[in-house]
Specification:
By secondary structure, this protein is an alpha+beta fold. It has seven helices and eight strands; from the N terminus they run αββββαβααβαββαα. The protein has a single domain, classed as L-fuculose-1-phosphate Aldolase (3-Layer(aba) Sandwich). A hairpin with a 6-residue loop joins strand 1 and strand 2. Helix 4 crosses helix 6. The structure holds zinc ion.
């Protein structure tokens, strides 16, 4: 049976996720944002704008509704609140959204190359990842575009910007952000050595997908 999660735990987990993203160099101390909600809730908790993400406390988080309006909390919600809200509106199964600025993923995809399935694990996640052309951060346009792509995906790469991972839990959403960076790191090493890259055959990815489904 699934353990019920409390809002208190949820808020502590959001702060932890931001610390981990910083330690893994996926965000700077002021970049990125994360949010989470209790399953099916019409409101969610999100990181504030302006504060150092490495020093966040649960009391700093802001509660907003699915239109992105503040319901509880003293500060200003994240610049990307509209993006988080748009995703929750379209995906009833998503309870967490993590946005980071993965340097290798952003850099590598800017060179025109897309991430390739070089291991089964990264290949599986890449099949659930979509690219989004550059759109100015924090805008309604970016929010709608990302949410639309995420109707049939679990992560998006925002050109010239970063990545967004979604999941049923914060650890699932965070894992998707981390795996994209892992895929980019593997590809970068391989490309630097100028080898033709042997990719994982599609049939193997489909086999792995059926085993994890
Ligand atoms: Zn960003």
């Amino acid at each position: 049976m699934k353990k019920k999660i409390s809002e208190k735990t949820l808020k502590r987990e959001i702060c932890n996720v931001m610390r981990v993203l910083f330690e893994r160099r996926l965000i700077s101390s002021v970049g990125g944002n994360a949010s989470a909600r209790l399953p099916g809730a019409e409101e969610f908790w999100i990181t504030p704008r302006g504060l150092f993400k490495t020093e966040l406390k649960p009391k700093d988080l802001i509660k907003v509704n699915l239109q992105g309006r503040t319901v509880k909390g003293a500060g200003q919600p994240s610049h990307e609140t509209l993006l988080h809200a748009a995703i929750y509106r379209r995906r009833a199964d998503v309870n967490a959204v993590v946005h980071a600025h993965n340097p290798l993923t952003v850099g590598l995809t800017l060179t025109g190359g897309e991430l390739k399935p070089l291991t089964v694990e990264t290949g599986l996640h890449l099949r659930k990842t979509r690219m989004i052309p550059y759109v100015f951060p924090g805008t309604r346009r970016l929010a709608e575009l990302a949410a639309e792509r995420l109707e049939k995906a679990e992560a998006v790469i925002l050109q010239n910007h970063g990545v967004v991972g979604v999941g049923r839990s914060l650890s699932e959403a965070r894992m998707r952000v981390e795996i994209l960076e892992e895929a980019a790191a593997i590809q970068l090493v391989a490309v630097l050595l100028k080898k033709k890259l042997p990719t994982i055959p599609l049939r193997d990815l489909e086999k792995a997908e059926s085993q994890t489904a």
